[in-house]
Structure to design on (377 residues):
């Protein structure tokens, strides 16, 4: 397999254990189930190429334990007990932090698209990311092929991970979950704040309970269907000062949503404390902007109208210009709206399709497949 690479004595690597164990590019090839023997092959390749004393730290998702065969599960627990392996609800953020802090390699076939904004060093140091290949003579580690990712593709990956691992627990690979996304939902629970603000239909996505039913993300009670949801786009709000995202919410064809500061019936309160909004959100008017999604000859298109805000709305389309109060603006994929010099609003790269629409190609291992839920750039 070649000579051991000459590297500094403090070089090491953090291994994405779940990614390795699920890899169909490791023997047994093409078999889609997790096996710890694949981890053994990658560890052996590391020591052959970097030396027997080059340290490895293993990081795994908690979910891997439940997916492994019983004997592998017992081995995984022994690795945890020895301190060689760490488990976390989501392994990616932890393994990237560990690799960054120590200056180590990352061994994973993942492209980490959803974490590019939090970890810009990924694109600055692509040589620190190693994948693997099986060439008939054994497994060998090689650069994983990290490439720059356009902002809209990062946004798409963030959206997928947020739906699955955030408060919604929506896995778009599950048929029943996709059906939930294709419907509007209504909360009828007395005293629920979301039911009060949005009595006809909830603005945001529902959550999926343990029994697979749609639940209110506020009160936790089951929801009632409120009709089919048309094609949808996701709106992203971020701090204009540092770019930190603090809110994502969907908007569907035939719907209009007000953005502002304060409780709004059929609107979004950008100043809600649970969102951790920027301090300057106080410059946003109570009723600042109206967003809508409408069907056009070219497909669903988002429109924005400034509602006569005190501090105005700026549109960025190559350069900044002021949006006239009451003027209707069609939003492009790269357009940005600046509300009161405080909050940036834009379209996410994600588009959620109705059941009858054609699905787009699947995402890679960083985001998983979106079958009925398609995406476009």
């Amino acid at each position: 397999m070649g000579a051991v690479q000459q590297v500094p004595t403090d070089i090491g690597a953090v291994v994405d254990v779940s990614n390795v164990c699920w890899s169909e590019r490791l023997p047994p090839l093409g078999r889609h189930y997790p096996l710890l023997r694949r981890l053994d092959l990658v560890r052996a390749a590391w020591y052959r190429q970097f030396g027997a004393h080059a340290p490895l730290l293993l990081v795994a998702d908690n979910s891997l334990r439940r997916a492994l065969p019983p004997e592998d599960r017992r081995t995984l627990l022994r690795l945890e007990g020895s301190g060689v392996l760490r488990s976390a609800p989501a392994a990616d953020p932890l393994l990237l932090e560990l690799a960054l802090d120590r200056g180590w390699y990352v061994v994973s076939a993942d492209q980490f698209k959803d974490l590019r904004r939090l970890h810009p060093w990924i694109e600055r140091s692509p040589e620190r990311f190693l994948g693997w290949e099986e060439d008939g003579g054994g497994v060998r580690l090689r650069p994983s092929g990290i490439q720059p990712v356009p902002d809209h593709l990062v946004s798409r990956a963030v959206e997928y991970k947020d739906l699955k691992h955030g408060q919604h627990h929506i896995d778009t690979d599950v048929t029943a979950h996709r059906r939930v996304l294709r419907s509007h939902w209504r909360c009828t629970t007395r005293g629920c704040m979301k039911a009060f603000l949005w009595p006809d239909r909830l603005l945001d996505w529902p959550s999926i309970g343990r029994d697979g039913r749609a639940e209110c993300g506020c009160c936790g009670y089951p929801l009632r269907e409120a009709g089919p949801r048309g094609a949808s786009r996701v709106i992203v709000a971020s701090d204009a000062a540092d770019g930190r995202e603090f809110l994502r919410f969907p908007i569907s064809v035939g719907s209009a949503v007000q953005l502002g500061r304060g409780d709004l019936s059929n609107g979004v309160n950008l100043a809600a404390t649970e969102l951790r909004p920027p301090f300057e959100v106080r410059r946003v008017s109570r009723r600042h902007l109206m967003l809508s999604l409408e069907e056009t000859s070219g497909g669903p298109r988002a429109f924005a109208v400034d509602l006569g805000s005190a501090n105005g709305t700026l549109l960025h389309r190559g350069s900044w210009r002021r949006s006239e109060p009451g003027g209707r603006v069609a939003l492009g994929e790269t357009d940005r709206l600046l509300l009161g010099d405080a909050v940036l609003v834009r379209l996410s790269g994600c588009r959620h399709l109705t059941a009858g629409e054609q699905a787009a190609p699947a995402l890679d291992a960083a985001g998983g497949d979106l079958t009925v839920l398609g995406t476009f750039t």
Summary: Confidence is low (pLDDT under 50) at residues 1-9, 353-377.
